[in-house]
Specification:
Layout: H1 5-8, H2 24-28, H3 32-77, E1 82-88, E2 90-91, E3 95-112, E4 118-123, E5 130-131, E6 136-141, H4 143-178, H5 184-216, E7 219-221, E8 226-231, E9 238-239, E10 261-276, H6 277-280, E11 288-293, E12 301-312, E13 318-326, E14 337-345, E15 351-354, E16 359-361, E17 364-370, E18 376-380, E19 383-386, E20 390-393, E21 402-404, E22 417-421, H7 429-437
Helix pairs in contact: 4-5
């Protein structure tokens, strides 16, 4: 059998070679099923996130409204319990500080007047001059007084001569009455005349002493060691006994302008203060006080209580107290305003109530007390002293009771509350009281 030359010359073809050739686009479509599930998962995740955000936003907006609605419903039913902040009533510290105002005064001060009339011959001390007791401040010329004194002395000599004559006659008549030369009645007359002469001499001596004393007042002297704070005389001015000059010169106004001089002792100054009745029993002589003056802000002067009135003024309910301050350098001037501070120990300290717990009403100041059963009750206070951020009281509340802070008018008696006690010790009434005392 003959073979076809074309067939015999070529090897048989692979079966796949006879399959039709597919276009490129058809080949790429075979990988699409693998990419489609991945895209679907991404879309699902995005939708889930959006849905979760929507749910969260819905809950955030809805839950508070539901809570408020429940609270309003509870209030409408009268089932709610109001939460209030409370603070316990405590006593003030036993040691307290009290500051009282006063005006400094010299320990001694005097207006010096003339004791005799005349003309000022000279003066030796002007204002601000330090003088000692007995030092001559001025000299007054008194020619009329000098003449009166000379006349009085002459009268005294005359009276003494009359006394001598009367005594001689009495002795002579005493011898004559023994011999019955004169009668007893005549002798008694001579005796009375001698006694009258004695009285006349005594009167003349007294008049001389009086005029001599007046003459000594020609020298105007300082009554004590101190400072001349006023002068109202000049050379040639006429002064009258018991008064001063006819025209007054400038003075500090501390005494009448008709006085010749004004003096003050300032090496020790004093101040009179009025202590309230609540602290009067804690003030005793010898007690130390701190004296502060605005002009010396960094200096504290030591004062001491020297005496008290030992009686409370029924009008002001205060105790008059004198405090003396040693002033050797004379820094403190009379007339200065001063603040006197005492550190007192009280046997029965008052109760302390914070100012934020006060509720002013028409019948007085109240606090709202929270009882053990959680119900409130209004208490009327009796305030002893107001320190601004807290009050000292002596009635209306008891130690250890809880009072509502920042109360309102919406808490009538019997209201059920939930008490939340303030825990900050530095902000408590007792803490403020202690802090105020340590300033």
């Amino acid at each position: 059998m003959s073979q076809d030359p074309d067939r015999s010359s070529h090897p048989p073809a692979h079966p796949a070679a006879h399959l039709p050739t597919l276009p490129p686009s058809h080949a790429a479509s075979e990988s699409a099923p693998e990419a489609r599930p991945l895209a679907n998962r991404r879309i699902g995740i995005i939708l889930a996130v959006v849905l979760a955000a929507f749910v969260v936003a819905f809950l955030i907006g809805t839950i508070p409204r539901l809570s408020n609605a429940r609270a309003l419903a509870a209030v409408a039913r009268g089932d709610s319990v109001v939460s209030v902040e409370v603070e316990r009533i405590a006593r003030a510290p036993k040691t307290t500080t009290i500051a009282l105002p006063g005006t400094l005064e010299p320990l001694h001060q005097a207006a010096i007047y003339a004791r005799t009339s005349g003309y000022v011959k000279l003066w030796n001390a002007d204002i601000g001059r330090s003088v000692h007791a007995g030092e001559v401040l001025a000299i007054i010329e008194t020619p009329d007084l000098d003449e009166q004194l000379a006349q009085s002395r002459a009268t005294l000599e005359q009276a003494r001569s009359g006394l001598e004559l009367a005594r001689v006659e009495q002795q002579r008549w005493a011898a004559m009455v023994k011999d019955s030369v004169v009668t007893v009645d005549e002798y008694d007359q001579k005796t009375q005349a001698a006694q009258a002469a004695v009285a006349t001499v005594a009167a003349a001596q007294a008049d001389v002493a009086r005029l001599t004393a007046l003459q000594s007042f020609e020298r105007v002297t300082a009554p004590f060691d101190g400072i001349v704070t006023g002068r109202n005389v000049d050379v040639g001015a006429f002064v009258q006994a018991g008064g001063g000059t006819g025209t007054s010169m400038p003075s500090n106004g501390s005494a009448a302008p008709s006085s010749l001089f004004q003096m003050a002792q300032t090496d020790t100054v004093r101040v009179y203060i009025t202590v309230p009745q609540s602290d009067a029993t804690a003030i005793e002589p010898g007690q130390v006080a701190d004296v502060r003056v605005q002009e010396f802000p960094n200096q504290v002067f030591a004062g001491r209580v020297v005496r008290t009135a030992r009686a409370v003024d029924p009008q002001s309910r205060t105790l008059l107290t004198e405090v003396q301050i040693v002033n050797p350098k004379r820094l403190l001037l009379p007339g200065m305003y001063a603040e006197i501070r005492f550190v007192l120990t009280r046997a029965n300290p008052p109760l302390v109530v914070p100012a934020t717990a006060l509720l002013p009403l028409t019948d007085g100041v109240h606090v709202i007390e929270v009882g053990a059963d959680g119900r409130v009750k209004h208490r009327k206070l009796r305030i002893v002293r107001d320190y601004g951020d807290y009050m000292e009281v002596d009635g209306g509340v008891s130690e250890g009771e809880s009072v509502v802070l920042n109360p309102g008018d919406d808490l009538p008696d019997g209201t059920k509350v939930h008490a939340v006690e303030r825990v900050a010790p530095n902000d408590s009434a007792a803490g403020r009281a202690v802090a105020a005392k340590l300033k």
